[in-house]
Design a protein that fits this description.
The structure is a single chain. The protein is mainly beta and 130 residues long. It contains 2 helices and 5 strands; from the N terminus they run αβββαββ. Strands 3-2-1-4-5 form a 5-stranded antiparallel sheet. The chain is globular.
Length: 130
């Protein structure tokens, strides 16, 4: 049995909702899923945070999930599964896909959108410890 939470929003190839507000800085809410790690230059790793069901200030889902670096703001919250968070971020265009020396047909290069520079991060719900 897989204990990983299921991402509930529909996944888009291009995050069309984010594309509409490209360049804008605004407030978002999301559900914390888990911590992770990503590879970095020269074989090291960096801690990350997976957020799901990301919505804008009007409650519209803008994307099903995004990975963020574990910034001081996220780290200070000591998040647990399904905690709701609120933060401000800027929508930015980035190039997605493999850009190495060989062709990889299942990872074509294309434009996509992300949330960048999260600030004013806060937890919306505080779960009780019994």
């Amino acid at each position: 049995m897989n204990d990983q939470p299921v991402l509930s929003a529909k996944k888009n190839d291009v995050r069309e909702e984010l594309q509409r507000i490209n360049g804008e800085r605004t407030r978002f809410t999301a559900r914390f899923v888990r911590y992770g790690r990503k590879g970095s230059f020269r074989g090291g790793t960096k801690p990350t945070v997976l957020l799901a069901d990301i919505t804008d200030i009007n409650g519209n889902v803008v994307t099903d999930h995004l990975w963020f670096n574990l910034t001081k703001g996220f780290d200070a919250l000591k998040l647990n599964g399904n905690d709701q968070v609120e933060f401000e971020a800027r929508v930015k265009l980035y190039i997605k896909g493999y850009r190495g020396r060989r062709d990889v047909p299942d990872k074509p290069v294309k434009d996509d959108y992300k949330l960048s520079h999260p600030t004013k991060v806060k937890k919306l719900n505080a779960r009780r410890r019994w």
